[in-house]
Specification:
- The chain is α+β, with helices and mostly antiparallel strands.
- It has one domain (2-122): Ribosomal Protein L22, Chain A, CATH 3.90.470.
- Helix content is 42%, strand content 30%.
- It contains 5 helices and 5 strands, in the order βααααββαββ.
- The chain has a 3-stranded antiparallel sheet with strand order 1-5-4.
Length: 124
């Protein structure tokens, strides 16, 4: 049963400015996300934008927003075949558990100027 859906869009240029501030990146992104984005030098801002959109979409899917969640506790990683997946830690895992959801579905995409993410929370 679906218990929440969230979607968010982020302008990639916004993340281009963020890439110049290491402290800002470390505040909002998990170390695994920073490593991935750094390895994609030509698409670094695009990678950060899609992950930031996913974090915002996660809060919307919860229905509570992100007020009790440290954004770096939500990590968007890729499986071996490139499929995006969500890994939750600390505050994000706690809020997820409170929601009653048992599974997270994620889809991300990007175009020249924007990145978008959709999250569906499911209770099996």
């Amino acid at each position: 049963m679906i218990i929440g859906i969230g979607v968010d869009i982020v302008e990639i240029k916004r993340m281009e400015r963020w890439t110049e501030n290491k402290n800002l990146l470390e505040r909002f992104f998990h170390n695994d996300e920073i490593s991935l984005a750094s390895s994609r030098r030509n698409n670094e801002a695009q990678t950060f934008a899609s992950r930031f959109a996913a974090k915002e979409a996660f809060g919307k899917a919860l229905g509570t927003g992100l007020s009790n969640i440290a954004l770096k506790d939500i990590a968007v990683i890729n499986s071996e075949n490139g499929k995006p997946q969500i890994k939750l830690y600390g505050t994000a895992q706690n809020e997820f558990n409170k929601s009653g959801a048992t599974k997270v579905h994620i889809s991300i995409s990007h175009e020249k100027e924007n990145a978008i993410a959709m999250i569906i929370l499911e209770k099996e």
